[in-house]
Amino acid sequence: MQTALPFLALLAGIVLFLHDTTRDKQGRYLAGYDAVLETAYRAALDRYVLVMDTLHSETLDRGEVIRLFAEGSTADDAGERDRLRDALYRMLLPTYRTLTRHNVHQFHFHRADGTSFLRFHRPERADDPLMDVRASIRIVNREHRPVSGFEAGRIISGFRFVRPLALEGRHLGSAEISVSFEAIRDAMGILKAGREFDFLLNADVVAPILFESQRALYHPSGLHPAYWEEDRLAAERPAPVPSHAVAQAAAVLRADADVQRRMSDGGTFTTTVNAGGETLAVSFLPVRDIEGRQVAYVIAYSPTTAVAELWTVFLTEVTVAVLLVAVAFFLAYRLQVDRRTLFERTRQLNAIADGMGEGLYVLDRQGRATFVNRATCRMTGFTAADLLGRPIHDLIHSHAGNDGLALADCPIFRTVLTGRDFSGIESFMDRQGRVFPVEVTSRPLVENGAVTGAVTIFRDITERDAAQRALREREELYRSVVGTLSEGIVIVDGSGVIADCNPAAERILDMPADVLRNRSAMDPGWEAVGPDGAPLPADSLPVRRCLHTGQPERDRLIGLPRPGGRTAWISITCEPFRKGDDGGNGVVVSLTDVTAREEMDRELRRSNTELEQFAYVVSHDLRQPLRMINSYTQLLERRIAGVADEEVRQFMAFIRDGGRRMDQMLVSLLEYSRIGRKGEPMQEADSRELVDEALLYLGPAVAECDADVSITGTWPRIVVSRNEGVRLFQNLIDNALKYRRPGASPRIEIAAARADGDADFLVRDDGIGIDPAQMERLFKVFQRLHTRDRYEGTGIGLAVCRKIVERHGGRIRVESHGEGHGATFRFTLPAAPAGAEGSGP
User: Fold this and answer.
1) Contact, 733 vs 698, CB < 8 A?
2) With b meaning 16 or more CB within 10 Å and e meaning fewer, what string describes 760-783?
3) What angle do CA 27, 29, 31 make, to 5 degrees?
4) How far apart are CA 172 and CA 75, in angstroms?
5) How far apart are CA 796 and CA 727, in angstroms?
């Protein structure tokens, strides 16, 4: 808006100037109409002055006319006066008729005392005094000089031409001719054809002297209320009817306050009005009577196109001015916008440059700095005032560290000289003399095809160099450490190609590094067997699975065939990784030679199998002689029942009880040995169903002790041997029922949850609790924490639980705050794959 104000003021000034100039041109043009009207009016009056002068010299001044008037004007007898008046009328009647043909319709003789003697236009009216009402008659008869001009009359008003009459030096009276405005109009029309004229009388002057009978010849003007005009129908010689345009113009002018005011002032003026589809120049010429009073207006209506053309030219000039100012404003606005945009862009670029972490400076062709950002000042220690306008090379680049490099040899400045980009590593020096390495990029600034300078961006790479050195040192350390590892390390890229390996990998894989490197892990030439000795399919190899799924493969046991029919057993762990920001994948493979361990494990498993078989055989075979002992003990006890004393019966009870307990222990040992051998195969099962089945078996015991059993949590599906899973929950719940507090109903909580691929379970009771010092004995075979007379059992139930859990790859532990505080057994079992959920609580 502020930008537009000067242009609006300029446009207003131009329009005002053009308007005033056009108004001035219009004024001068309309003034010409004033002059033309006045000239025509004077010329018309002069015509009738000439007529009167001719009449006076050729007719009135003849002896018979003047003597006859002298006799009649001085006759005292009225009859004689009438006779002489009549004789004069008949003598001059031909002359009067000639005058009427020249629009002179009034011919009048006056006595020396100002009374009317003879009116040719009204011969019947005579002897009326005129001295008081007719100034022209008064002046001529008193001053004996001719008078011409407009004058209101008793009958009609008109233009009077009065001349004194004398005989032999004696003043007799006067004679006059009068013409109406119609005669003047006709004369003016001859001079200025195409114009219409009107004549308005000042009512204040005319009305007081008119005969009452003559008032009907006048009516108020439609142009101004203070003026009259003749009734065109009642007049002796009706005036022409004004055109439609003139009639409309009069109505417009009557409503124009300025025209009304100027007419009231009595001045000469011309104005314009649009009426009837055309423009009229209306000129007003005031008419003054013989006494100098403004008594009438001559009005001329002249068609004109010049005024409209002036205003058309004005509008054209204004349009041109508006266009020129608009163009100037547009150019100025664009210039301002461009300047503002340039300023904003410069400010933004400066803000961006100042916000950069890199240093930035601009050189001119002499190597002087024309711009530096904050980072440049921060890294060099100089202020902007120190650097601007000075050769920045001498301040930060030419130093002892680069042998005082000259400006002409400076690769950065040579960008200005050659117009070619430069990128490289240079050394800069700060204000304190510290030399630091920088990575520099310099590009030429080109304007109109010529290099005007260069812009240089640099960054301090001190920390980067230190980091690279540290990285190299770490890499060397890594290679040293990896090279000394007994585990083999192999790096496989995303395409499956082996990128690197350590010496241990060469030894474990029995291949040199140059053979391993660039060999693909997808190579079908790799041969491996599973733990069971069967060949592994190619897509089951751990590296391939890890590359395919992106998931780690941990502790996978595979066998690699060796010459001589041997097999090298290797534990493989594969961890995927991403290589940098490019998103490339890779795998780190850890190889551990577990051949010796695997052989020992196999031997141990074989030995355990034999021991389990031995335990089973022993427990099974020992029960037969034990049953014989128990049977014969019972037979013996019956035989001697009548003769045995108390001590014998007590001994027999000891034998019977010992046999029974040994049978229970053999049954428990047999059951313990069957775990893993006689159980159902591993399969998915709903863990909640296992708990429900265990509670079904324990229903009588639960009811007997009025136990409160609550089941909570989310119960997942698990991979388990079903009958062993039921036995696990049954043993733990039965343990909680057995070791309840005396006289109290036990409260047992059973809960489950899924976490990290395993299913977590707990069985919590509020029973007698466990002494923390005894917890290590809890899961051992035949280990009891209480005497048999308090709690029955063989001490093998929790050992069975531990064996079941460990057989499934889980863990089991117990928690208790001591005796009287209950116990919580927690254990884990392998969960089924994700998505296979079991029942709710």
Assistant:
1) yes
2) bbbbbbbbbbbeeeeeeebbebee
3) 65
4) 12
5) 13
Q: State the virtual CA torsion across 637, 641, 645, 651 in degrees, nearest 10.
A: 10
* 390 bridge partner residues: none
Distance separating alpha carbons of residues 272 and 341, to the nearest angstrom: 53
Q: Can you tell me whether residue 369 is helix, strand or coil? A: strand
Distance CA 154, CA 170 (A): 29
- What dihedral do alpha carbons 480, 486, 487, 488 form, nearest 10°? 70
Q: Is 395 helix (H, G, I), strand (E, B) or coil?
A: helix
Which residues neighbour 493 within 8 Å (Cβ) at sequence distance 6 or greater?
499, 579, 584, 585, 586
| CB-based contact 796:782 (threshold 8 Å) | yes
pLDDT category at 660 given cuts 50, 70, 90 is: low
pLDDT digits over 361-393, tens only? Answer: 898 988 898 988 888 898 888 988 888 888 888
Compute CA distances 432 → 143, 379, 396, 429, whole Å. Answer: 122, 11, 11, 8
Query: Pairing between strand 708-713 and 747-755?
Result: parallel
3-state secondary structure labels for all residues of 126-172: CCCECCCCCHHHHHHHHHCCCEEEEECCCCCCEEEEEEEEEECCEEE
Ranges of beta strands (E only) in 747-799 are 747-755, 758-765
Residue 492's nearest CA partner among 500, 504, 484, 503 is: 500
Asked whether 173 and 141 are in contact (CB, 8 A), the reply is yes
Q: What is the DSSP string of 247-258?
A: HHHHHHHHT-HH
How far is 683 from 686, CA to CA, in rounded Å?
10
Query: How many Å apart are CA 691 and CA 725, to the nearest integer?
Result: 9
221-232 average pLDDT score: 79
Q: Is the Cα dihedral 598, 603, 606, 611 positive or negative?
A: negative
Interatomic CA distance for residues 498 and 509, integer angstroms? 13
Q: Does this model's pTM top 0.85? A: no
For residues 374 and 350, give the distance between their C-alpha atoms in angstroms, rounded to a whole number: 10
**Measured in Å, how far apart are the chain's first and last C-alpha atoms?**
76
